[in-house]
Amino acid sequence: MPVDDKEALELKKFIVSNFDQNDISTCGLTFGISSKIKVIIEVKTKRKVKTEKEVYQCSACMTVYDSDYGDSIANIASGVLFENLPSDYKCSVCEASKEAYLLVNL
Ligand SMILES: [Zn+2]
Question: 11 lies in which domain range?
Fold first, then answer.
């Protein structure tokens, strides 16, 4: 790490202490400080990997209702939770009732 430049070193210290004060972990950061005080910060954020996802599946035809997508056929906007679907909601494929849907983990 090129920290031979005093100004650059000070800047690095400032950045690190600033992150620390803001409770931001610096261990995931890569610093590149040149003598021209050019700071390159690469933030390596831990990607939240969703391994499981809860969706509802029609037990009759295996159609999945995913609240992230909604149901365009039934005019259900994306983001509508299964619980919030109208009670007369029917499977867009086989017209099974809401009760036919079962909670599954993908
Ligand atoms: Zn169905």
Answer: 6-43
